[in-house]
Amino acid sequence: MYFFPLIAAFLLALRINKAIKFTALRSKWRWPLNILGGIAIAFILLDKQVDEDRLLLISAVYLLAVVEYLKRQEDFKSFTVLLNAYLPLVGTAMISALTARVAPTFYENNEAFFICGQLAAFSWIYLRLSTSKKQQQELRRISERRDELEAMVAARTAEITKQRNELQETVKELQATQAQLIQQEKLASLGELTAGIAHEIQNPLNFVNNFSEVSMELIDEMEAEMAKGDMEEANAIAADIKQNLEKIRHHGQRADGIVKGMLQHSRASSNVKEPTNLNTIADEYFRLAYHGLRAKDKSFNAELVANLDPNLPSINIVSQDVGRVLLNMFTNAFYAVHQKQKTIGGDFKPRVEVSTRVIPAPPSGGGGAQVEIMVKDNGSGIPDAIKDKIMQPFFTTKPAGEGTGLGLSLSYDIIVKAHKGHININSKEGEGSEFIITLPVA
Amino acid sequence: MKILVVDDEADVQPLFLQRFRKEIKNHEVEFDFAQSGEEALDYLKGKHSEVVLILSDINMPGMSGIELLTHIREDFPTPPPPVVMMITAYGDEENYKQAMDKGADDFLTKPLDFNLLKEKLKTI
């Protein structure tokens, strides 16, 4: 049975040739493998005058040589498992051959056993081969699956990246929109102010015109008195004229202040904190807000009460921003009393009050002195259901187009975030609201 | 002729006094002033019989000119009732109608035309 190792060698060459059929190794190894296989076949076919046990040894050695040779080739690293599967056959063949040589009687008695061993070793190769084939298939499947998963991951990653970029774009757009909305809110509140401003400027201008006109008349009279020689009367008139000129200057400055305030209100905030008297801003915006609403609805009238603490210290604030907050609070208060007046009508006396006071630092420590501004109205109040929503951006109870819903949310940003202050709200539906702003003195 | 001027702007007072300088000097008119509707009503309680003409601003904090007018017409109906002229910066239809409905005798807009006012005084 000497041909087992030779057939194995031939099949091995064939097998490897098949495996590398579609690879780069084919051109290099095709003929060497064919030759190795060919030698094995030629050896079988040759007419041999040698003992069978010697032939067996030679074929076993040949198979071993072929296996070891291929194992040493870098190109066939991946075939190591396959190649090792041939070694049991080499071993059994060699043992059979050597036994036949050394103990021929024992061999002959047990020949069937030895042949069975070789057959078993031969079968082992193909058993091994089929399992490794399965393993390779399994490996291939796994690698295909891995490629598939990688492709999916790459696709998903691309998708996520795209989404992230889109989100970043959206965030940018939102930020731009927010900036625009803040600007719009400023312009909207300026719009509410315009009528108030017009009224506030008209009054001093009337005085300027009237006092200058009357002064011209007075000068005519004074000249007449001087011509008559009544110097006492002439001097009295001159004193009046001087007083009038002072009034003209005073009212000119009043108008000037209003225009400056208006420009300041619409200008982008400088964010520079300067020592400011809150009473001045409170008083100015109180009247502007009132006249703003009055200009829209002439029938509206409210009692304005200002209790401004004359001892209020100046505090460091961005006056346009805090002014905007106060304007918002006043506008809301007037809106609330106006709404209530519309629903109740008749006997209801709208009343809006602004008061300022100093809250001294607590003696136990823990925070310094504070100033408090309270805007109180007896209007429609805030229903409990919406109390926690009113600070949210875009929340408004006004009809569409009348409010941006940003007023209180911007106020919160200005007072709490930028000035480290607080806004407290006490309100009872139907009875009125109190908005209390506290700001640290230092 | 006693005239009560009601306006929350204090500077209205020297303005009237100077504009009517000659008339005051010749004792043709006499002016009194109130800075709010409430103050005006207080004043009228004592002197309503002396006052011939009331010139009142409409737009004042607290009691508005229209409310003051309503009170005057309700509280002092005894003949002859004072002539009441309303003055406002908002010379619109609605304000005018409201003032006239409540019994105003005339309606003037700011800035006041003093020559026109003097003409009107002659007819009283």
UniProtKB/TrEMBL annotation, chain A:
The protein's annotated catalytic reaction(s) are:
ATP + protein L-histidine = ADP + protein N-phospho-L-histidine
Q: Which UniProt keywords apply?
A: Coiled coil, Kinase, Phosphoprotein, Transferase
Q: Which CDD domains match?
A: HisKA
The residue ranges of the Histidine kinase domain are 196-442
Coiled-coil positions are 132-187, 224-251
| Key word Coiled coil present | yes
InterPro entries per record: HATPase_C_sf (IPR036890), HATPase_dom (IPR003594), His_kinase_dom (IPR005467), HisK_dim/P_dom (IPR003661), HisK_dim/P_sf (IPR036097), Sig_transdc_His_kin-like_C (IPR004358)
- The EC code for this enzyme is 2.7.13.3
- Top-level EC class, please? transferase
Molecular-function GO terms, alphabetical: phosphorelay sensor kinase activity
Q: By what name is this protein known?
A: histidine kinase
Tell me the organism: Mucilaginibacter terrigena
Automatic annotation (TrEMBL), chain B:
Protein name per the record: Response regulator
* Cited InterPro entries: Bact_response_regulator, CheY-like_superfamily, Sig_transdc_resp-reg_receiver
SMART domains (UniProt xref) = REC
**Residue ranges of the Response regulatory domain?**
2-124
| Single biological process term from Gene Ontology | phosphorelay signal transduction system
- Phosphoprotein as a keyword? yes
Look up the domain of life of the source.
Answer: Bacteria
Residues with the 4-aspartylphosphate modification: 57
**SUPFAM superfamilies in the cross-refs:** CheY-like
- Any Pfam family matching the protein: Response_reg
Keyword terms:
Phosphoprotein
Q: Where is the signal peptide, in residue numbers?
A: none
